[in-house]
Structure formats: structure tokens, C-alpha cells
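Regression test attached.
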Amino acid sequence: MIRDNLAEYLESSAARFADRPAVVDPAGWTIAYEALNRQADALARFLTSRGVTRGDRVGVVLPKSVAAVVSLFGIMKAGAAYVPVDYTAPTDRCRGILTDCGVRALITDAGVLGVVPDQVQTPLAALIVLGDIPEGQATAAPATPFATAVEEGGLATDHPRSASDLAYILYTSGSTGIPKGVMLTHENASSFVEWCSTVFEPHEHDRFSSHAPFHFDLSVLDIYVSIKHGATLYLVSEELGKNPKELARFIKTNRLTVWYSTPSILTLLVQYGNLDGPSGWIPRLVLFAGEVFPVKHLRELQRRWPAAEYYNLYGPTETNVCTFAKIPAGIPSDRETPYPIGFPCSHCQPLVLDSNGVEASGAQDGLLYISGPSVFRGYWNRPTENAAAFIDRDNVRWYNTGDVVRWQPDEGYLYLGRRDRMVKRRGYRIELGEIERALYLHRAVREAAVIAMPDSDAGVKITAFMSCHNGNVPSIIELKTFCAKHLPSYMSPDIFVLRESLPRTSTDKVDYQALHGTVGATKGVRQ
Amino acid sequence: MDSVKETIRHFILTTYLPGESPANLRDDTPLRKGGILDSLATLGLVNFVEKEFGIELDAYETAVDTFDRIEDIAALVERKRGR
């Protein structure tokens, strides 16, 4: 049943499971359902009293914490949409996002007060700060301590709720410029949550991981499916999330039953986590999404955790998960091809169009379009991108995922890649052109061309081909160091190949096909 | 000590710096602070060092200040092996 507001999941569970543990903070303490709901209500009253109204955006720039979960629900209860921002990202990027969507209020941490946007047009209605503000530190607006904002008291406020209201805006990853804000409604999220209920059959004794940060859409499953069913959500801090041994211990100690993350994290767990074998604790469900899972690592994980059920979930932020594939028990030892993205979720309708815009038949390749209640409203304030993202067919609005797929009757959709130059690496969207632009900033670089190739170990490998101005050839180490300064680590090339000049087509463009052809033979050799 | 350094150097070159001249990867090149190894690559290096030399490293022993240059890592290995 689609909910008019995601907060209803918390409200129902607070009534049914009042004293059950709802969320466990990274520091280890627990908040029960009723208390979580009361704090969220108090926060909603506070925001409303400060003038936050239906349709407003409220920024959330916080580390993983119970306070962050309270914030999400409090904001939605006030009728506003939350805008989660990576608090570890550079200040400029944070401010850019908060300014782009014009947040009316902001909930942040005392350690990152630099993210508060300049009060150019509209001053913030509220600035709520978690933690102690350092002595002498000025704040751009009068700040309210978080504890004050969630104090009891005040009349309950009733807001009209509608499933078509915005629940949150997730900004797509990108290192330069302002990334796009994906607008998602309560209906979008709720239709996905309802699908999860039917497929995964969660219950109040489940213990969910919350590995993904709240600005990634994997968090939507973690938070709302867990809370809907009265289960317990175990928050994984950013630091813990990058430490495979400690993470493995965390899963075991807390006897987590549902794990959801990108394949990269699971690969780290299996390679460095010292996972117990089949006799140790095994989650009942292992869900992964965001990138291709190299089969050799998935197979090894399944050997350590044979009793778990594994699901490959596929879907852009714009639709959340829209297809899924259950991985069979006992992956054959000789299988190398990654598993398909599988069958459409029951709440999503797929459409595959060939390059002429004609519906692809049988096993023909084509672009995947999705329609249904989980398809996002659009990008915040991006009319050009919005026009390009959707097509209208028979009075139905379809979203163009940009992914090329092929239908196979037994296994569902096979993911083949994209026609543009965007790839997923460690779960992030990266534009190969952005990497090239960064390389061109190096004064020695004359030409730069970046390609991505599937890799049975890493999922994807990024190779940068370059030619340099005479006599000024940088070492690979210099290039790595340069990239580390200009690009986030997930965008840094794996291999650098230096050439006299790059192959060109008859129209004098870089011949990417030719470069792809050389990758097997070349292994970062200077020529 | 030299063979420990060479083993580490060879691993880093072949795994993270294909095509680089060994001479460019010096004993005192800052691997992490210099942006040559990101957090993922560091995990790989720590794992390699532990398995290759049969030692176990605690989190504080792999902090970025002390586990950053081949010469420091080799010295750590020697200490853990009791030489």
C-alpha cells in the first residue's frame, strides 16, 4: 500500500512495536520506536514553528547517527523534503548543493559549519547544530542545538500529506560543477518499499545494516524497509564502513540478518575481512547494487556464506531498484560472466527501444526505459536534462535509464553497458570525459583519452592514454599524484599509457575503438 | 632489509603502477600522502605485507603517518619479525 508520507512507516511501527529497538547508533546505544517517533515529532513541530512548510527543502549534513535518522523523519513530518549531503565532501560542494535547491533550513554538525550557505536571498529559517559549537565560532544564522530542537512540548501539528509530495532530493555523484538533484516523492519511495516487503519478507526480528550513506539511494531500503517492519537498523559509521576486518566483526557481533551495499564493499569483506566460514554467523539476505559484481568474488563470498540468499539489484537513483536477479546457490566454478540485472520488479514496467526508437524484439539490444510509480519527478531546476530524460509513449511517461540491455527469457535483462561515457565505479557514477578534462590540466599533456573496460577482478578498469609535449614526459607516479589532487579517488585511472600520439579517425577525433583494441596487449607500457 | 624493500616495491609496481620505472619508486616516496595509493590500494598493500611476511598489523601500525614509505614499512616488517 503506497503511503502518503514515509513517516507513516515509523508512526505505525511506533504503535505496534513501541519498545522494540529501532536504530542502533554507531557508538552502540539504541533508541526504541516510540522514542524515535516522539523525537521526530518534536523536530517537526520545531521546524514548523520556524516557518518550514510543505514543499520546502531541509538540508541534512550529518554523520551517521540516531540524530540523522530523527532528522529525516522530522523533516518529512513537517511536510518538507530532506536533502542529505555527504558531510565529508569538500565544503564548496556541500554549499553548492544546499544553495542549488534553496534549502529553507539546515541540520548539521558542529564540525562542518563551513557548509552553511551564504544567506544571499532567503535567510535560513532554522539552523540546527549537533554537537558543541567551538568557542568563538560565528555561525551564519542563529543556531539551535539539536537537543533543543527535539525537546518535548508544543502542540502536535497536522499537515496535509500527499504521496506526490517530495520526500527527498538525492544529488548524483560528480566531482566538478553542481551535480543534479534527483527529486523523489513519497509515492516513488513507498512503491519501492512495498516491493521489498513482498520479495524479502522482512520481520521485526531482522537486523538491517545501514552501510550506505543517506545521500545514496541504497539507504532508502535500509531505513524504510527496516522501520516499516519493526526491525532494528544498525548504523555503520563512515570509518567502520571502510575497515573490512572491523566490518566483518560488526556483522558477526550484531548478528545482522540483512546486508545491503555495493559489490565493492562485499569484495573487500571477502578479501580482507577474515570472514568465518559456513559455521559462523551468516546474514540471511545479501543484497547488492550499484555496479557489476565480479563473479570470482561473489563466488568466494558464497563459499564463506553459503546459507545466505543473494540478490543483484539494479536501478538508477531516478527509479531506485527496478530489476532484480536472485543468484543461484552454488555458482559454477567456471562461470566468469557477471550475473544479469534480471527481471523487472512488479511495480515497474520496462521498455527496450533500439536505436531507431522502435521497441526491440526478442534478444535485440536496446536502451532500457522504465515507467511506474517509482519513477522520479525530475531533476531539480534542470529543464534541459528533464526534457532529455523522459519520453511520452501512449500517454505514459518513460524514463530513459541510458543503460543498454538485452532480454534473455531465462535470465531476464543482461546489462551491456551505456552509449554515453558514464560508467559505475565503486558504486559511483563517473564521466570518462571528466577524467580527460582533469588530465588536460597537466601542462605536459598534449592529448588524453580515457576508456573503461570490464575487468574480472575489479569490475571495471580505467585506462588513460596520453601523449605529451616534447621532452616533458611525466612519470606514472607523477600522473597518479596529479590525479589524486584533481579527482576523487574513484575517478583516478588504474593504468596510464604514454604514446607518441593517439590514434585518430578520418574526422580527426580520437579513435576510441582503436584504443579499446589495444588494451588487451598493452599493460601500461611506455611506447 | 633490502629484500623486504624490494619485495614491497615489486608488489606496488606491478599492482598499482603498471608501466612505471622502478627507479621512480624510491624508498622514501610518500605513497599515501603523495596520492599514489588511495584507501583501497592501502588495504591491498597491508594485506600483502601481512600475508607475505607472516605478520599481523594493528590499525595503529598502518596509520598514514607511519605506514607511508617503503623504508618505513620495511622497518616495521623487520621489527615485527623480531630482527
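Expected vs. actual: identical. Residues 29 and 469 of chain A are 59 Å apart (CA to CA).
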